[in-house]
From TrEMBL:
Pfam families: TPR_leprecan (PF23557). Keywords: Glycoprotein, Signal. Residues 24-187 form the Leprecan-like alpha-helical domain. Residues 1-16 form the signal peptide. The keyword Glycoprotein applies. The lineage of its organism: Eukaryota, Metazoa, Chordata, Craniata, Vertebrata. GO terms for cellular component: endoplasmic reticulum. It comes from the Eukaryota. This is Leprecan-like alpha-helical domain-containing protein.
């Protein structure tokens, strides 16, 4: 599961480098919730997963740009006021981030600024709460989605009851209770390096192959 999640995140990160491919996650989320309320489970599952992948791709692009701009050498400046010497590197980094994200995100970075409520939903893993219902015909995926949400929301009484029901159901294996947002540190380190490599060199997918086989190598 860790390698599958890694590949999904890599695909989202690679999408962040291709103009027109990274649909804003809040739009996908809104469409997914509408499909959920309409009981169009297959459509809801598709849109909610795409929203999660878009969110992961956006975060990967921001991480890569922050890392790239942090490595950038500060521009030399001539004599001037101390304010310029102090603020120069800050302004240079801000400009670098703006340009980097502008190259990697289509539509423009401003289109990916979701509302605070939507950002909070993703921080609290709310899409997985919807997914565990939308996946009712795919029991393993429903269990994983439910567990992923419950890890971040252990006080959620309804989900606690759902988890207990899943545990009593025949056919549910213990390894289905996986946190889809968590990967071992060695997988996470490999994926982070591969994300940055893909963002800088989209055509070089050798790292994706390495990441996909990381679990098998453990």
């Amino acid at each position: 599961m860790a390698s599958l999640l890694c590949l999904s995140l890599l695909a989202a990160a690679a999408a962040a480098t291709s103009p027109g491919r990274l649909v804003p996650f809040d739009l996908l989320y809104a469409d997914g919730v509408r499909a959920y309320l309409a009981r169009d489970w297959a459509r809801a599952a598709e849109l909610l997963q795409r929203a999660l992948h878009s969110y992961a791709g956006l975060r990967a692009a921001r991480r890569a740009c922050r890392a790239a701009c942090a490595r950038q050498e500060p521009l030399g400046g001539g004599p001037g006021r101390w304010e310029a010497a102090l603020l120069g590197p800050v302004l240079q980094r801000a400009r670098c981030l703006q340009q980097c994200l502008g190259r990697r995100l289509r539509p423009a970075p401003s289109a990916h600024r979701a509302s605070r409520a939507v950002r909070r939903d993703f921080e609290r893993r709310e899409p997985y709460n919807y997914l565990q219902v939308a996946f009712f015909q795919k029991l393993d995926q429903a269990v994983s989605a439910a567990h992923t949400f419950f890890v971040a929301n252990p006080q959620h009484l309804q989900m606690r009851e759902d988890i207990e029901k899943y545990r009593r159901m025949s056919g549910v294996k213990s390894d289905s209770f996986q946190d889809l947002e968590a990967t071992p540190h060695w997988v996470r380190a490999q994926c982070r390096a591969t994300h940055e490599q893909l963002l800088l060199h989209p055509r070089d997918r050798s790292g994706a192959l390495i990441c996909s086989h990381t679990k098998a190598m453990a």
